[in-house]
Amino acid sequence: MTDTNLDALLGSAYDDPGCDEAGELMDAYCELVSRGERVTAQYDEFLTHMNNCAACREDMEGLLAALRDQPEEGSR
Q: Are the CB atoms for 67 and 34 separated by under 8 Å?
């Protein structure tokens, strides 16, 4: 069983803030991840929501893919 499946089965220690609040953090979270920076505890509830909501997770994965495909600054 994967960690994600186990979390879904057992639940999370963090509250799920819902789509609206998670959406407000999505850009900042994706920017951190795309730059390879450490994700802090302030995103724990956001990540709980991403585990619980397939629609938001799909949006996040699309944004991460778009950021990966962007040319680096100065290489244009």
A: yes
